[in-house]
TrEMBL record:
One of its GO terms (molecular function) is transposase activity. It comes from the Bacteria. Residues 11-157 form the Transposase IS200-like domain. It comes from Candidatus Shapirobacteria bacterium CG08_land_8_20_14_0_20_39_18. This is Transposase IS200-like domain-containing protein. GO terms for biological process: DNA transposition. InterPro entries: Transposase_17 (IPR002686), Transposase_17_sf (IPR036515).
Amino acid sequence: MPSRNIIKQYVENGFYHVYNRGVEKRNIFLDDQDYRVFLHLLKYYLSEQTKNDQKQHPLANLILTGFNPVRLRPLQNLKNEVILLAYCLMPNHFHLLIQQLTLDGMTKLLRRLLTTYSMYFNSRYKRVGHLFQGAFKAALIQEDSYLLHLSRYIHLNPKELSNKGFNPVNSPYSSYNYYLGNKSADWIKPKIILDYFDSTNLLIPKEINSYKKFIEDYAGNSEELLGKFALDNADTISDKV
């Protein structure tokens, strides 16, 4: 189950639900470019890099408004330290489901990601100060059932912004389409979750024989199963950004 321990748990090969929201619950993504910049940074840090990639800033190929990349965190990639299983970006917060392969992989990724994005955002919108609400939150996931339902919770998160007839396939800023095979990339690894959906897995009801059915047709409430760890009670594991 998600860890409730006060002492922060850094575990090699551990799975974590990671999230943060805007300071004072303000929006951290104001338009499509902001979402794309955040995802481009994730892709940059978690993809194989060439020598040319290492020589330029990760946002160099994007059309940005007034962004001058100074005082950047180190840009070497973390492909061998962090695996991204799922993500969802919402106007005032984000969710990541990750596996850290090293004891400090998660911390290094979040510090670099959030610092660089905050610099971009503040420069573009001519603001100063912290963008995110204190430290990022991270809950250690210790049971397979929680891992599965957390991926479902993350992919259904945009439902709160939608009217009746919500379809997660239409969510442009989540990893759900990677799970359906509509998209593919080496920096997002859906196979870890999809491997649970075989004929021998007792965690999945027999009638729910695909990830798509688990997300869209399963009658259970994943948020109730996860409890408040789905958002507010996860352990704090890093520094302010």
